[in-house]
Amino acid sequence: MTNFAPTNIDAMTMTEKELSSVVIKFVGDSGDGMQVSGNLFTSTSALAGNDIATFPDFPAEIRAPIGTVAGVSGFQIRFGSEAIYSPGDNCDVLVSMNAAALKSNLNTLKPNGIIIANTLGYDAKNLRLAGYPADADPLGEAVGQGYKLIQVDLTKVAKETLADKGIGNKDIERGKNMIALGLVCWMFQRPLEKVFALTEMRFGKKGDWATWNKMLIQAGWNLGDTLELFDSRYVVKPAPLQSGKYRGIAGNEALALGFIAAAHKSGLKLFLGAYPITPASDVLHELAKYKKIGVDSFMAEDEIAAICAAIGASYGGSLGITVSSGPGIALKTEAMGLAVSLEIPLVVCNVQRGGPSTGLPTKTEQADLLQALFGRNGECPMIVVAPGNPKECFEMAFQAAKLSLEHVTPVMLLSDGYIANGAEPWRFPSMNDLPSIEAKFAHENSPYQPYARDENYVRQWAVPGMKGIQHRIGGLEKEEISGNVSYDPDNHQKMVELRQMKVDKVADFIPELQIINGASKGKLLVLGWGSTLGAITTAVMDAFKQGIEVSQAHLRYLNPFPKNIENVLNNFDNILVPELNSGQLAFVLKSKFKVKIVQLNKVKGKPFLAGEILEKIIEISHGS
Amino acid sequence: MEVDSILAQMEHPVIYTSKDFESDQDVRWCPGCGDYAVLNAVKKVLPQTGKRKEDIVFISGIGCSSRFPYYVDTYGMHSIHGRAFAIATGLKITRPELDVWIITGDGDSMSIGGNHLIHLCRRNPNVNVLMFNNEIYGLTKGQYSPTSHVGLVTKSSPYGVIDTPFNPPALTLGAGASFVARTIDRFSAHLQDTILEAAKFSGTSFVEIYQNCNIFNDGSFENFTNKELKDDNTIIVETGKPLIFGKEHDKAIVLRGHQPEVVALSDVNASNEWIHDPTDFVKATLLAQFGVMTDFPRPFGVFYAKPRPVYDEQFHSHGWVAKDEDIDKIVAGKFTWDVG
Predict the structure, then answer these.
(1) Per DSSP, what are the bridge partners of residue A72?
(2) pLDDT tens for each residue of A473-499
(3) Contact: A316, B86; criterion CB under 8 Å
(4) Partner B, chain A 270-289, Cβ-Cβ below 8 Å
């Protein structure tokens, strides 16, 4: 779709090209402000009415050695006049601040793509730090490979722009990201007044920097206007988005908001027990802001204390949640078992990252599914849900809380590093749009049996302070109905079955599995779960364009499965299951259903490229 | 109706006896276990706290003592090993009006729950910790614990324990506890008084209770309970009183500089006399060390009680006060745009 190939038009004649979708990647040192440039450009694209997906990619080290490949930080944005489902496999424009950034990202630039390079970032020192030989000329080589190079001494322009402002050289040099932003805004004809307004919003509190950054952006814009660096400017028209009010949303923020909304709808206080861990900490940061409305955000001494405090809060009648990532979830395992045995509400969020052990803290993976389903001692079923994109993080956090409160049982939510930090436009709901949540409380001074159940096998939630129904609960096996400690063999069998039936019964309260693209019957269904939604959808759309018949469904509920899953699967000859693990959903599907599962697995700490999934779709379509 | 409303206006409207706190469960500790004495003491103290049954919660970990909540007719949770402190912290933050008690043992609190205990002490929520110290793992049938003394032969230390034991009062004082006391199962009045003091104190009250395990570690505290031995081996510290002990009531502990010293009562004078002051942190830390200093009697009583800011008050948890509009605003965030 996108084509940046040099045109035949006279270079002096500026042309305007319309593009339906563009991917820009801002890459530089982790101190170069690439996230800021990326975020501001994202907001301007949002105001231009584009559909958007973004993905930041930063190193695990806060400040790795300057100029090295280890320290490269990136921000990728895809914006378009068509529906955008993922941040894109490869980029059209690579804004690269130094040699290391180019080295680690050039392989993602499309053929004939544009490189915007900061001259100073390619001097002898930077080449050495990036690990190039002394006589290397990576930019020259790139031009030789057909890439279009726009080389600007951004640092010099920044110095000229902010000369006589009394700003230290170091600070001025950091302004090069804003020059680059101005240049990109010029390329895509973003109205400057809107960019300025956003800049003021971003830097308003930092005094003069709002003004200075606007000057830098203007300078970048002027470069485009005067230097005749480009033979084209580009237009990306508004996308056919549903009308309404939008905001940008990243997955972690959406999780926090979803829990706040759920607490509000249930009329309960929200209690977060958390311990800092990448990539989940942003949920803690976000929720910590809302003490004034009734959010108790507790940073515990460790992961175990975090979940136990949440269990204590739940026991006290609040919506208790805990948020962590793989290694932290492993530590919480025993306490999850307690919550399952107590049968109290609790939501455990796992923002998955590469494992095992400490693994890849800032990279994404979906390898904790089996841990979520089975990773506790004893027969220990939990409801398991998984959002597919940043927007769904809100919805599924809300759903997780609703199911937990209405079925008085713990729920695990599986997000991952990719959607945690990725962002997209979101037509956010108002409280009126959301369903009610009725926590299933016991009643004071009424006959109360702690483990008596209703028709959905749900027990009543009695909390301290309720008169006349004092009782004791614990992690020991309980006698059915009375809840007294019981080692009776038949009772244990029955309680194991009841806890399972209660979770299975949740299938009556969740949506059925929908075919979201393609026919409801056919040769091939692509079935994903979690954060692969965007890449799969893009691949399926690309397959349609090639005339390939394929259907798509996405699982948001992993335990229990939607009631109709077997019927849906039985309508297809092949079920392609792309996962960022070694085949965990495939393993479960194979054990439950007699369908032909084809696995597509990737465990590189990176999300799927749509192209990788498309390739597999083509392979299966041709093979059958 | 009228009586009810009058009672409701009284400061301590509920009048219970210890019998009111008996649950319907059979108590299943071994016959002769020191835990019975603690249970009885707590049941006698509870009516004196003025708290309603439904507002009292006992949270325990794992171990013999942790069965305790089943035997009291209040709310209760028998949780998992070592984690009662964390569970109680979450509960107390979200429901500060509740009266929260933590029941734990030497293994539960000093080993697997050690981290949670020290963080409880530093945060100082208003909870009461009763630590049943029998210097042994009882429920798992007799392994040495983090408070077992060096040389103790158990199933897991057939050649004798080589680990230096924890000193619970010193540990909790070091972690910032605002109330630290020691008592013993056999001194029933002292046990009750100490637990009542702990209950009245605002902040984390840590009470170490020497508790005899007559099955796996019988006689561990014999020196302090045996009629012949106890007077020379124990000292009861009381606010405003000098540190005097001995069968003949003829010995005292005084301070020579910063060094405690056992002297004859007749050698006590105005310059060296040690009057117990539970707000004196330095003296509290010295008292805590008596347990590991030879020739000193083991102290019992409230070592330290000095109120400081209470975590659950500072946390300032309150009810959910948001209106729909407030949440709509939060969900919308700072930057929105219109499409169509």
Answers:
(1) A29
(2) 999 999 999 999 999 999 999 999 999
(3) no
(4) 270-271, 273
